[in-house]
Design a protein that fits this description.
It contains four helices and 33 strands. By secondary structure, it is mostly beta strands. Among the domains are: 63-189, Immunoglobulin-like; 350-477, Sandwich (Immunoglobulin-like), CATH 2.60.40. The strands form seven sheets. The chain has a seven-stranded mixed sheet with strand order 14-13-12-16-21-18-19, with no helix packed on it. The longest helix is centred in the N-terminal third of the chain and has 8 residues, at 12-19. The two termini are 40 Å apart. One of its GO terms (molecular function) is copper ion binding. Its EC number is 1.16.3.4. Monomer.
Amino acid sequence: MHNRLGNHLLNRRNLLALGGLTGAAALLPPGRDGRHGPRPRRLAHVPAFSVEMPLPPVARPVQVRPDADVYQVRIKPARVEIVPGLLTPVLSFGGGFVGPTFQVRTGRRVIVKYHNDLDRAANVHLHGGHVPSVSDGHPMDVIDPGRFRVYDYPNTQQGTTLWYHDHSHHTEARNVYAGLHGFYVIEDPAEAKYGLPRGRYDVPIMIRDALIGQDGELIYDVPDTRTTLLANGRPQPYFRVAARKYRFRLLNGTTHRLFRLRLEGDLPLIQIGSDGGLLPAPQRMRELLISSGERADVVVDFSRFKPGDQVMMHDTSGTVLRFDVVRRARDHSRVPDVLRPLPDLPEATVTRDVVFNLDLTTPKWRYLMNEQEFDPARVDFQVRRGATEIWRIHNADVERGGINHTFHLHLEQFRVLDRDGEPPWPTDLGRKDTIYVPPGASARIKVRFTEHLGRYVYHCHFLDHSSLGMMAQLQIVP
């Protein structure tokens, strides 16, 4: 189940297909020169635990109306410190490498006006958002340079951890890698009764990777070469904690990677939520698998530690961050045995198949869903509003050791019914919008399409794949 795509992308033409999609070479130089082959590169020295993990700033509305909170965000280039002592050119929401966190409330409408100050088109997709099609951030609905777009988010869904990122077709992978990503947290008053950690003890953490040159530049290259792990935009940072329970909202913000997270000292990760909100019951685990685009809310209890103790969070490829216990604290929070039950879904009336596959027979590989590359003029599935459907997701890429894929559906959360006929994984047990599907494996999901009409997409959320065509379109009709 490990990601082996990097073993295959050393084919020169396919490496250039991943690295040469836009005019962003000045910002994110490719790892190879078309005339001279491999280009020697000097990478930055990245010291571990030399900086504190920051918290992204909280977005503040520019207007509070009776019916909505109104925000303005500029999409602009910036220079930020990722590696200590170096400034890195990035693309940003509002000037930071991790955009401002929207803290919104269930049932309270939000309007965001995004101004594009870049020299290229961009857009914004609210990943996991239940929103009208005009505000979804469809890959073809871009904001041209010098223009703006207004997104209207009704926030009719339950409390959950969402995120927003660029989704402009053919450039989404580069733009997200360059920094166009941030948290969108829906807070739900109905969850106060559970007594979970809150306030300063409720912490969003975006985990991702990077390849950073000695001058600080972000290098866009084969994903498996991105060896620097970042937490909220800083390399292997430390984070000061009290000896009590914390809720960590974990997001895999990579464009192409799996993380298998674990804590030192046999300390469990207690998962309480996934993409669509709280689970029916907490899941206690020693290792958490989280793929590109997925979120997992976990509670970690540091109460058994004393000030001065340190706890590492590791991935199989290295250490992600270090928790430094610095004080004792009273803790009235808890993790109840029962959380938020899943709603009943009607019986499905339609079954569909979605197959990921790469065509490796051509010099430049073709990234396909159901044997077709993405075409915005083509509707792949026409769905009736109000319908409940079962989708069978299959990863057919088993040649040459297998290639990983993740499935992401816009608009609606779904329920995982089974994997290869076996029960869902513990991480599948809540509302989902993104799941990892290993090579040769299948998963069945059940989804109900509710009130919204229009066009949406579904795709592999390894954005390096969707940018090359591994995406399809559905149209929801009355």
